[in-house]
Design goal:
This protein is an alpha/beta fold. The protein has 21 helices and 24 strands. Strands 1, 2, 3, 4, 5, 6, 13, 14, 15, 16, 17 and 18 form a twelve-stranded mixed sheet that branches. The protein has a two-stranded parallel sheet with strand order 7-10. The chain has a two-stranded antiparallel ribbon with strand order 8-9.
Length: 575
C-alpha cells in the first residue's frame, strides 16, 4: 500500500473545536475570534490576561544548512510539538504563515508533512485569515501616497527637503512569484498619470511592513514602527519616512486585525500559532513576537521555528527577535538529515524536482562525517549564544542505521543530545524520544546571550556575525557599503542589530561552498536600512526579493475537482 499524500492525511484529520483547543491552553474565550471553523484570531488582550500563568520552556527549532529540498524543519517542529503529549507534557508550536507565491511556485504547501501537519491544510496554505493581503495593502498604500507626494510637487509644509528621485528605496509588493515585475517603470502615459520613474515589486514576505509586524510587541509599537519606515532620502542624504508623508497611521489601521495571531491545530490537536511570514534572506525569517507573548503562557513548552539554517534564522532569532521580545530561549533543536550531511560532503549535486543521486542513498557513514562539519559549526553557533542544543535526526525511509549513528556521534562530540525521529510516518509517537531529550535540555540552566551589544558600530556587528557565526576571516566593504554605513550612523541608525542577507544554501556567501568553509572573506556590496522593522541589512550576494515561476510550477497542478458531487469542489495539488 502506498503512503497517503499530505492532503489525504490532512483531510482525514479528526479536528477539535478551536474553542476547546483555546480553553485547554488557557486562552480566554472572549479573546478568541473565529474565522470559520479552521482558524481563529487571538486578541492582544490575551497577553495581559495570561501573564500570570506559568511560563513555558522556550525552544527554537533550526537546522543544518539546508539542501534545495529542505531538511524537514517545519515537519519536525510539528511532530515534536505533538510528541510532548506522548511523554506527559503539553506544547504549543509557533510557525510562520506561508506565502502563496512559493505555494503556487515550487513548494505546493508548507504545513509540515505526513502525520505531522498543521490543519486544515488548504486554509493554512491559501489566504488563512488575510494577514498577507493586509500587509500587501498597507505597503502599497504607502507606495501610492509616496507617488502622490511626488506628483503634487514633492514638497513638505514644514520646509523639509523633498525626495531625491534617485534615492527612493520604497517599492511595491505582491504575494505572487512574478519575475517580470522585478523592475518596472511607472507613471507613463501623460501628465495626469504620475511622475515617471523606475521602481519594481518585491514579494509580500519581503516587505518591511511584514518584518515590522513580526517584530512589534503591541499595536502602539507597530504604529511607531510604521512611522519610522524610511522610504528614501533627500539630496543631502537625510531620510524621509512614512510618518513624513502622512502614511503611517493609515498603514497601521489596515494592520489592526493582522497583528492578532492565528490559532490552528496539528493533526493530533496540538495548538499551533501561525503568524507573519517575513522573508528568510533579507529579514528575520521568524514568526511574530506577539504570538510568542501569548504562546509562552499556553503550555509546558513553546516551540518556535526559525527559517533556513542556524546561521541565518536562529542567529536572527537570537540577536534580533529575542533582543526585541526580551524572551530568552531555554534550548534549541537542530534538525539534521543523512541526505543533507552527505550533500555537505561536496560529493553530490541535489536539484529540486529531480531524483536524488543513487550514490547519496547508499550507506556511507564516512561521508556523513565528512559533511558533518556543517552540523559541527551549527552546534557551535548555538553554544556561542549560550543555548543548549539537541540534534533532531530526521529519518527518512531507506536511511541506513550506520549513517544515522554517524549523526549521533557528531552530536556527542559537542556534548549535545540527539534522537532519531520518525514523526513524518508516525506522528508524535515517532518524536517521543526527541521530546524527552528536549525536555532534559530545557531543564538545564540557560546562559543565553546576544552576540553583540547595541552600541557596537554597525561594521563591527557585521564582522562579528561573519567571523563568529559564518567562520569567515573578515568582511570586505565596498565603497558604496562604507558610504551607506556612514549615512546610517549619521542618521542615528547605528544602534540597530544587523540582519545579513546572503544565500541560505551555504554558511558562506557562496552557495557552491558546502560544509563549513574557512579561509574566505564576506563581501558586503551594499547595506540597506529597515528602520521601521528595526534592523540594518547588509547585502552579500545576489538577493532576489521577487521569485519567479519555474517551467512547471505547482500552480499547474493545483485545481478544484467535482468528482464526488460536492458543489464546493475539492482542492487537489497541494502537498
Amino acid at each position: 500500500m502506498s503512503f497517503p499524500t499530505d492532503l489525504e492525511i490532512a483531510r482525514a484529520a479528526d479536528l477539535k473545536p478551536l474553542a476547546d483547543i483555546a480553553g485547554s491552553a488557557g486562552i480566554p474565550l472572549d479573546q478568541l475570534e473565529p474565522y470559520g471553523t479552521g482558524a481563529a484570531k487571538i486578541g492582544l488582550g490575551a497577553i495581559g490576561a495570561m501573564a500570570d500563568r506559568p511560563r513555558a520552556h522556550y525552544v527554537v527549532v533550526s537546522a543544518i544548512t539546508p539542501t534545495p529540498l529542505g531538511e524537514g524543519k517545519t515537519t519536525t517542529t510539528v511532530g515534536l510539538g505533538q510528541a510532548f503529549d506522548h511523554i506527559g507534557s503539553s506544547a504549543t508550536i509557533a510557525i510562520r504563515q506561508p506565502s502563496m507565491g512559493p505555494t503556487f511556485g515550487i513548494k505546493g504547501g508548507a504545513a509540515g508533512g505526513g502525520y505531522s501537519q498543521v490543519v486544515p491544510m488548504e486554509l493554512f496554505n491559501l489566504h488563512l485569515t488575510g494577514d498577507m493581503h493586509a500587509v500587501t495593502a498597507a505597503h502599497n498604500l504607502c507606495s501610492a501616497m509616496l507617488d502622490a507626494h511626488l506628483y503634487h510637487g514633492n514638497s513638505f509644509a514644514d520646509g523639509k527637503a523633498g525626495f531625491d528621485p534617485h534615492q527612493i528605496t520604497w517599492r511595491r509588493v505582491l504575494d505572487v512569484n512574478d519575475r517580470a515585475l522585478r523592475n518596472a517603470v511607472i507613471g507613463l502615459g501623460g501628465r495626469l498619470d504620475g511622475v515617471p520613474r523606475e521602481t519594481g515589486f518585491d514579494i509580500t514576505a519581503a516587505s518591511e511592513v511584514m518584518a515590522a509586524l513580526a517584530l512589534c510587541t503591541s499595536l502602539e509599537d507597530l504604529r511607531a514602527r510604521m512611522g519610522r519606515i524610511v522610504l528614501g532620502y533627500d539630496r543631502d542624504g537625510s531620510p524621509i519616512t512614512a510618518e513624513d508623508i502622512g502614511a503611517a497611521g493609515s498603514m497601521t489601521v489596515i494592520l489592526r486585525e493582522a497583528i492578532k495571531p492565528n490559532l490552528m491545530q496539528t493533526l493530533e490537536n496540538t495548538p499551533a500559532l501561525v503568524h507573519t511570514g517575513p522573508f528568510g534572506n533579507i529579514a528575520t525569517g521568524n514568526s511574530s513576537i506577539v504570538a510568542d507573548q501569548i504562546g509562552i503562557h499556553m503550555s509546558d513548552f513553546l516551540l518556535t521555528e526559525a527559517g533556513f539554517g542556524a546561521d541565518m534564522g536562529a542567529e536572527r532569532f537570537f540577536n534580533i527577535k529575542c533582543r526585541y521580545s526580551g524572551i530568552a530561549p531555554d534550548a534549541a533543536v537542530l534538525v539534521a538529515t543523512v541526505r543533507g550531511l552527505k550533500a555537505h560532503s561536496g560529493n553530490h549535486r541535489i536539484v529540486a524536482g529531480r531524483p536524488l543521486p543513487e550514490a547519496l542513498l547508499a550507506e556511507n557513514p564516512d561521508e556523513v562525517h565528512q559533511g558533518g562539519d556543517n552540523l559541527r559549526k551549527q552546534l557551535a553557533n548555538m553554544q556561542l549564544h549560550g543555548v543548549t542544543p539537541v540534534v533532531a535526526i530526521n529519518a527518512f525511509p531507506g536511511d541506513h542505521r550506520a549513517d544515522l549513528d554517524a549523526i549521533a556521534e557528531i552530536a556527542s562530540e559537542y556534548g549535545a543530545r540527539s534522537a532519531v525521529a520518525t514523526h513524518f510516518a508516525d506522528g508524535g509517537a515517532g518524536a517521543a524520544t526527541l521530546a524527552e531529550a528536549v525536555k532534559e535540555a530545557a531543564a538545564e540552566p540557560s546562559d543565553f546571550q546576544v552576540l553583540y551589544p547595541d552600541e557596537m558600530p554597525l561594521a563591527d556587528k557585521i564582522n562579528a556575525v561573519a567571523t563568529q557565526v559564518y567562520g569567515a576571516d573578515g568582511i570586505e566593504l565596498s565603497p558604496t557599503a562604507k558610504r551607506q554605513l556612514d549615512t546610517y550612523t549619521a542618521a542615528g541608525f547605528d544602534h540597530l542589530p544587523v540582519c545579513i542577507a546572503k544565500t541560505h544554501l551555504s554558511i558562506s556567501s557562496d552557495p557552491a561552498l558546502k560544509g563549513a568553509p574557512t579561509g574566505w572573506t564576506l563581501p558586503v556590496r551594499e547595506v540597506r536600512a529597515s528602520v521601521g522593522a528595526g534592523f540594518v541589512y547588509p547585502i552579500c550576494g545576489d538577493m532576489r526579493t521577487m521569485p519567479g515561476l519555474g517551467r512547471t510550477p505547482a500552480a499547474k497542478t493545483i485545481d478544484l475537482v467535482f468528482d464526488d458531487g460536492d458543489p464546493d469542489g475539492r482542492i487537489v495539488g497541494l502537498s
